[in-house]
Amino acid sequence: MEKMKALLVYGPGDLRCERIDIPAYREDEVLIRVQACGICGSDLPRALDGAVHYFPNILGHEFSGSIAAAGRLVNGFKSGDRVTAAPLLPCGKCGYCQIGRPALCEAYSFIGSRKQGAMAEYVAVKAANVLKLDDEVEYAAGAMLEPLTVALHGIDRIAFKAGAAAAVFGAGTIGLLTLQCLKARGAGRVYVIDIVPEKLELAKKLGADIVINSRENDPVEFMAGAGKPQIVIETAGTSITQRQSIEAAAKLGQVVFIGTATKDLTLSPAGFEQILRGELEITGSWMSYSAPFPGYEWTAAADTIKTGRIKTAPLITHTFKLEDGIEAFQVMRDKKANAIKVMFNI
């Protein structure tokens, strides 16, 4: 059996780069030679805290590469094709899958958590999950497709008119992609709120009209004076920004929560009253899939990256090799490093 290099999680903080068997692929799958794989925020507890479904585990669900081989039932792909892949593996049978909402599947699997991921030289993926990339799309940009689909899906949870003011809480990967998507969709003034000056500076370069350092200014008070946003997208996942997202919205405003919560959220009676009196629309956004699978989000993201309408390269702040192992995850968690997207070049 031929071998490949892979980064395996054996326990909390126990990551080892080893040579293991290249995965077998089924008749409806392709084998992808991975070239780039990003670290998602959800990978941090898996790698550093041992929050995985089993050990050893190969993480990685934001990736791109080229077709190395294909099963006998696969059509439309040939060796060398540049590709990326949607990591969700929906059951296709539950009620939500049947109505075209695979992200809500009740019995899904997922590449990089329940199934071997792409922090390895090769990964086997169902052909139905694979999307071709144009030859001019760099592998690092292809690996940014998955987080871009998350931003697109979040925006499409609401409907807004061109020129509407918007606020994005959090200037991480999803926040900065959301900023660019809002601008591309015709949003008017866009605020971006964060606590890291370097991230806010990048947000300005990527199109933010006003940036707010919430360590220096109360964003709710600032926007109350400068003009409340009709659209608020929360991507940071902190209880403070979640509360501020509701408090900042204009009456009849729309609030989308993308960031995953890590602590309890408490609203004061006055804060909750704003939802009622302002008749706010509040919704969540989960992953990035629609029907036909994997969804319009993926084809749209591929197109925006190809045409250059969305910039991904400035978000990639650190690159590593698989042999660097845990260092890549530590850099991403280190607040002093000001990391946005950390990428493995494989």
UniProtKB/TrEMBL annotation:
InterPro entries: ADH-like_C (IPR013149), ADH-like_N (IPR013154), ADH_Zn_CS (IPR002328), GroES-like_sf (IPR011032), NAD(P)-bd_dom_sf (IPR036291), Zn_alcohol_dh (IPR050129). Pfam families: ADH_N, ADH_zinc_N. Keywords: Metal-binding, Oxidoreductase, Zinc. Residues 174-294 form the Alcohol dehydrogenase-like C-terminal domain. Coiled coil: none annotated. Residues 27-135 form the Alcohol dehydrogenase-like N-terminal domain. GO terms for molecular function: oxidoreductase activity; zinc ion binding. Its cofactor is Zn(2+). Belongs to the zinc-containing alcohol dehydrogenase family. This is Enoyl reductase (ER) domain-containing protein. The lineage of its organism: Bacteria, Bacillati, Bacillota, Negativicutes, Veillonellales.
